[in-house]
Inverse folding.
């Protein structure tokens, strides 16, 4: 027999026997029942709240936007484990999950709704406190190497020295650059980003230095470069190891003389800019190989900050996943609680060649596919459940593999260049250049 068909006395006995908070409302959202468990959570007595609108009592963070009771009354479908914050009688915040479904009369007509409240406040604040405790300018980490890096950043930011951030693709180098900018005296100025591996040489030159009308075919108007756009602020040159040699010479002049000349310009301009650079490459090896200028290396390498890959900071996985789940829940209007132990174990065993960028993609996909509750194994991609092993010589070396190795990788991933680049920890444009040099295109 449905709960709503039981005599009122039996209903009350069942409500009091349950450990979770239970309350019911009528069609006008006025409370009709309120058990002792929900009294404990809210601090209100049943005698004080029966007959009052539920939003006046629970005061949730989503009453007006995403109310589970309103939704189940409108759709006649149950709503499961919707997380939210409620304020108790004394103004204390409780993080809870509410499930709701309609209440029917003897003729199966909707006469109200019943809600079950599960209080997470005993442990959920620890997640919030931990995230706040280990947050540093948008970066979250409890890893000792990362914490040491965080300690250095204020001192480095206070100088005008050029900084080189070393770390694998997707490890968060741009976040470090952003923190340096925010901590510096230039924080009121712009932070301008250039990816040196994203454009062909001529377009990259115009992108960095700017171009005057008629400087090259297609230059129909004056175009300010990123150097000009960054005046008074910070210019972040990402993947500087991909900068072509002719542009390395021009950048060296800027670093030495603090002047630059747009394409087609007759007079140089002053560069009032703080330079931060980053690379996933070994610039010392590139200098020895003659693909990166030694004098430029000395200029950009005044201060070096090493960013560890995600596989060396697995202690950060729970924090990062929790942060990402919250972000994508808000973005997609989902209510995913987190990852199941089985799914988390799979991630712990995975080595994340794409680092945090790849983790964010994994969590985003899982949140999209997960309809309710926790992310399970069924929401993870095959590459996580059964990761393909790369040849040892190529795996995460960031050095160009030989032709046979690269052909084998392309075969393993059915020609999918994006996946090959991700597994090698490089940009897709870098893979394209390697393939061109090895005559694979």
């Amino acid at each position: 027999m449905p709960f709503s068909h039981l005599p009122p006395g039996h209903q009350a006995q069942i409500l009091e026997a349950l450990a979770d908070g239970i309350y019911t409302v009528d069609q006008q959202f006025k409370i009709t029942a309120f058990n002792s468990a929900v009294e404990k959570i809210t601090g209100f007595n049943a005698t004080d709240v029966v007959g009052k609108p539920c939003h006046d009592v629970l005061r949730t963070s989503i009453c007006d936007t995403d109310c589970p009771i309103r939704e189940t009354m409108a759709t006649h479908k149950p709503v499961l484990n919707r997380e939210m914050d409620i304020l108790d009688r004394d103004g204390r915040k409780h993080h809870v999950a509410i499930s709701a479904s309609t209440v029917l009369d003897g003729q199966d007509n909707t006469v109200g709704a019943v809600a079950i409240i599960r209080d997470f406040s005993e442990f959920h604040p620890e997640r919030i406190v931990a995230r706040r405790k280990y947050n540093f300018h948008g970066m979250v980490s409890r890893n000792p190497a990362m914490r040491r890096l965080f300690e250095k950043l204020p001192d480095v930011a206070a100088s005008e020295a050029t900084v080189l951030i070393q770390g694998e693709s997707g490890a968060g180098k741009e976040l470090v650059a952003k923190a340096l900018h925010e901590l510096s005296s230039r924080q009121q100025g712009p932070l301008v980003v250039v990816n040196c591996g994203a454009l062909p040489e001529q377009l990259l030159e115009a992108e960095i230095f700017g171009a005057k009308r008629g400087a090259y075919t297609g230059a129909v108007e004056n175009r300010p470069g990123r150097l000009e756009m960054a005046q008074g602020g910070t210019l972040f040159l990402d993947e500087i190891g991909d900068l072509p040699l002719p542009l390395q010479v021009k950048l060296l002049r800027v670093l030495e003389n603090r002047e630059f000349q747009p394409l087609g310009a007759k007079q140089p301009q002053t560069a009032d800019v703080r330079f931060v650079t980053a690379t996933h490459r070994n610039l010392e090896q590139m200098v020895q190989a003659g693909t990166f200028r030694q004098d430029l290396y000395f200029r950009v390498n005044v201060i070096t900050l090493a960013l560890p890959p995600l596989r060396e900071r697995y202690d950060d996985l729970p924090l990062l996943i929790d942060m990402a789940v919250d972000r994508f829940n808000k973005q997609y209007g989902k209510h995913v609680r987190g990852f199941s132990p089985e799914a988390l174990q799979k991630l712990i065993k995975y080595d994340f060649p794409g680092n945090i960028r790849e983790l964010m993609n994994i969590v985003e996909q899982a949140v999209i596919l997960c309809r309710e509750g926790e992310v399970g194994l069924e929401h993870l991609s095959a590459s996580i459940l059964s990761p393909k092993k790369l040849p040892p010589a190529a795996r995460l070396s960031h050095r160009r593999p030989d032709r046979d190795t690269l052909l084998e990788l392309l075969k393993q991933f059915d020609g999918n260049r994006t996946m090959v680049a991700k597994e090698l920890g490089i940009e897709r444009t870098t893979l394209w250049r390697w393939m061109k040099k090895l005559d694979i295109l």
